[in-house]
Amino acid sequence: MKIVIIEDEFFSAEKLTLQLHKIDASIEILAVLTSVESCLHWFRNNPEPDLIFSDIQLEDKESFELFHQLPIEAPIIYTTAYNQYAIQAFKQNSVDYLLKPIDIDELRAALKKYEYQTYRMLKKSHLTRPEKPREDYKERFLVKKGSGLTVIKINEIAYFKSEQKLSFLVTFDNVKYAIEPTLDQLTEQIDPKKFNRISRSRLISLDSIKKIHPHFNGRLKLELHPAEEEEVFVSRERVQAFKDWLNS
Length: 248
Hints:
By secondary structure, the protein is an alpha/beta fold. The chain folds into two domains: 2-126, Response regulator (Rossmann fold, 3-Layer(aba) Sandwich), CATH 3.40.50; 134-247, CATH 2.40.50.1020. It has seven helices and 15 strands. The strands form four sheets. A five-stranded parallel beta sheet has the order 2-1-3-4-5, with helices on both faces. Strands 10-9-8-12-11 form a five-stranded antiparallel beta sheet. A hairpin with a 5-residue loop joins strand 13 and strand 14. It comes from Rhodocytophaga aerolata. One of its GO terms (molecular function) is DNA binding.
């Protein structure tokens, strides 16, 4: 298991490292980061870890700022001396919330929780979603365009994406429209032969894929049409389902 620790207190980071290695000697600590700025630099230049342990109050800002700025998919276990951040933490892909000083039994339980959630996600990604009758899938979307409305047909859509809790469709002409359904809802509404959920924030059409590149940590990097400003990846737990979709 590869882990990144986000912690600005040296002794807290050292103690957590020792506790993790006591639980599982094979755990690899990829980095210990002390500020949001250093985190932004590291995550932009390295593959994501399997798991993140993150304090909340860092040298420069709260760690929530990192996850607002970057679409990090790795699950997070928060470690903090304060309990008032719990609700906000669980909105940020949090597995657990541990109060300092960290009890090793609570740490062990949090790791078990992470392993169980990872197992469930892998199992779910290998299940074939029952197909609805062809006529039940959405064929068009009514969207706002300027001061009026327009209809976008499904074959005009390259991909769907979520940004800051809002959903959008992007056409092959590279026009983005806000839509009401969430990506979870769209995954059930769209023909799975034509679109695939490659991550929590992307649902892409087969025709939007230009190139596929193997990437670090078991992920796949995609070049899409139209191109995205940020890099687009198939998350590790969805890679096999994605390959099965391409082969179907």
